[in-house]
Amino acid sequence: MKITLRVWRQKDAKSEGRFVTYEAPDINEEMSFLEMLDVVNERLLEKGEEPIAFDHDCREGICGTCGVVINGRAHGPRSRTTACQLHMRSFKDGDTIVIEPWRANAFPVIKDLVVDRGAFDRIIQAGGYTSINVGGAQDANGILIPKPTVEQAMDSAACIGCGACVAACKNASAHLFMSAKISHLALLPQGQLERRRRVVAMIEQADAEGFGSCSNEGECEAVCPKDIPISNIARMTREYVKATLWAPQK
Ligand code: SF4
Ligand code: FES
To answer: Which of 42, 67, 201, 235 has the greatest count of CB atoms below 10 A from its CB?
Structure first.
């Protein structure tokens, strides 16, 4: 198949960016989207041109590194699919594909399609963990947890921290991401000790990073490759209200 790419090129965080058009003939429809970019980059290198910088790691939909906006939609046209798991058969011969980085003040562009998602790391460092010793794998059965609770916690833990929810939100809100992490830990007995301090610290850190608030429009849920539901945001709000009405934990 032959496609035309319009790719955001930006030298570094301080430079202005612009769309550059590339013709990409002889693309195999069984290639993944990132393999197609690899082929385009090989051709650019053969011509002595700078390859397109884009983030990737696992290419299996589990690490959350491969975030780009494809034709206006975070991670592209297929629901519940990361950019690395998208295949060129999702497009048609002759298509024009527009590729952009995540757009959010809290995710500054480093180069081309690569953004700095360190803000997510700092939110996790603020409270998205449990600091108690929960034992080893063999201790997991020591605390029995009802199956429905475990399932809900696991579904929340599926968040891969990709940032698509932020990119899709007109407020650049990190609420879906935070709510997944907060729900995961708030549902489990191991997350109780720091439960109130966690939600307050994470929300304060998100505010400091420049993420916006939530206006309940659901774009985040629509693009999330891991199907994290916005009902988690309601849980996070309840957690926050409870934490701030009661004496905060130290
Ligand atoms: S909630 Fe979904 S879209 Fe947001 S960071 Fe997690 S996996 Fe990505
Ligand atoms: S490269 Fe790991 S999720 Fe896409």
So the answer is: 67
Residue with tokens 């009902």: 231
Q: Whose CA is nearest to atom 3 of ligand 2?
A: 61
Atom 5 (ligand 1) nearest CA:
161
Can you read off the two tokens belonging to residue 247? 């004496």
The CA distance from 93 to 113, in Å, is 24
**Coil, strand or helix: which one is 222?**
helix
pTM attached to this predicted model:
0.95
Q: What is the pLDDT of residues 27-63, one digit of tens each?
A: 999 999 999 999 999 999 999 999 999 999 999 999 9
Give whole-number Cα distances, 11 to 15, 18, 106, 163, in Å: 6, 10, 19, 22
**What's the CA-to-centroid distance between 83 and ligand 2, angstroms?**
7
